[in-house]
Design goal:
Two copies of one chain form a homodimer. The first copy, chain A, is about 65% helix and about 0% strand. By secondary structure, chain A is mainly α. Chain A binds a DNA duplex (30 and 30 nucleotides) through helix 3.
DNA sequence: GTATTATTAGAGTATATACTCTAGGGAGTC
DNA sequence: GACTCCCTAGAGTATATACTCTAATAATAC
């Protein structure tokens, strides 16, 4: 693997693990056992590394949120979107942790992120629209659908911060993918009142799979959980 | 005013304006035209300043969220809670911006904040319960009420971050209280499906007052808006 | 007045961090 | 061998930041 790619990979790994704020370019170089000079040969500065990682993240989510326009949506589709989005969130979880500061330091990133958000909000709204077409949820006005989509976005992007600040008792306790995906429970909570009688029970059953476990149970859980819905 | 209090006040002001990360103890001292030594005579370190500010914030919110148990809740109460919570959020808005890092650096704060969150979640849940008693919303199961309260909390505490990252086009654009309070629109969106027919129209009318304005209109708005619901 | 305590100034320090600069190695080409 | 180009090492730098230390001054008690 090329040095440049190794730098991106290690940076992402370290950022996710310790937070961007706590990872210096010197740390990244040391972790790869290369010199700082070498790192700066491949990237002009730290912001450039972050920006390239963002582009990957953006590409991944855009790919996941590509909505088929030639067929109706199914429950499986809906769960796929949720699972995928949380998987993406997990893989690039450093990003939303210090978002404001990252954007403050990079004009390009700020602009791109804003457009990215808009695309995501549109996608969420479109998913709701198609779910109504499919008879999974009751149809809503454009205004309500937009406001709901925004709430969904807020819950999705901030669920992790909630877990880290309000849930974790100890600094050392690391987040697991399983815990992160309990955010799906919260998102589905938003949909409950809009479900049609035909789909209510099946969605409620799916939701139940993501119900947060009691704190006692968290300890024995695997570091990277595989529990939950996986097939497409 | 005592130097100690002046330090707390200036710190809060600078933190809110520039973000805690961008305000050093030397900045605070310079802003007050006192020496760093003087500042460190009154506070052992920066964390201590932040912790004391948190205690004020906590006290304020706890005071606002004190729920009367001797009478039923009214719509006015509900709007008072919303307005108050967003006012508190505004006054201490630096806090939720870099929350994770603040908690990482101070064990006491982490512990206290966790308990604070739990109290807030309980209060929100209790408000929903009493609103159901008052016939404003339909009653719900404990489980649903908890999950809904958590969603309300997520929307409230992260609305500002959303505005800062996704909405603001320019770095220099500062948030206004009016914009922040559009978060109330989002919170009320969560309640819509649960409203009873008797109250539906009046809540929808209240909600309409907080509807986000079009971006074009934002420019002429006052820096600290006074638009919106104010009486109790 | 004098002793004591509380407060303040301001120079200084240890450490961290993003980034630079120069020298050179290795591989391919002529 | 010499030239070129890509890559790498590693010492070094400028700046920032949280915090310390000493000495002096103001306030208070007796």
């Amino acid at each position: 693997m090329k040095t440049r790619d190794k730098i991106l990979l290690s940076s992402l790994e370290l950022f996710n693990e310790r937070g961007e704020r706590n990872v210096t370019t010197n740390h990244i170089a040391a972790h790869l056992a290369i010199s700082p000079g070498n790192l700066y040969y491949h990237f002009r500065n730290k912001s450039d590394i972050i920006y390239e990682i963002f582009l990957e993240y953006e590409k991944l989510v855009d790919y996941y949120l590509d909505i088929p326009e030639d067929r109706p949506l199914t429950l499986d589709d809906m769960m796929f979107y949720l699972e995928s989005v949380f998987d993406g969130l997990w893989s690039y979880r450093f990003f939303h942790r210090d978002l404001e500061h990252l954007l403050d330091g990079d004009r390009r990133l700020r602009q791109d992120y804003r457009e990215f958000t808009d695309r995501c909000l549109d996608a969420i709204s479109r998913i709701f629209e198609k779910m109504a077409d499919a008879g999974i949820i009751e149809p809503q006005s454009d205004e309500l659908r937009s406001a709901m989509s925004l709430n969904v976005w807020l819950v999705i992007t901030n669920w992790m911060a909630f877990l880290k600040t309000a849930h974790a008792c100890e600094e050392s306790v690391h987040l697991t993918l399983t815990e992160l995906k309990q955010g799906i429970y919260q998102v589905l909570t938003l949909e409950i009142p809009y479900l049609t009688p035909a789909y209510r029970e099946s969605v409620m059953a799916l939701r139940e799979k993501y119900r947060p476990q009691l704190p006692e149970a968290r300890e024995v859980e695997l570091r990277v959980g595989t529990v939950g819905w996986n097939a497409v």
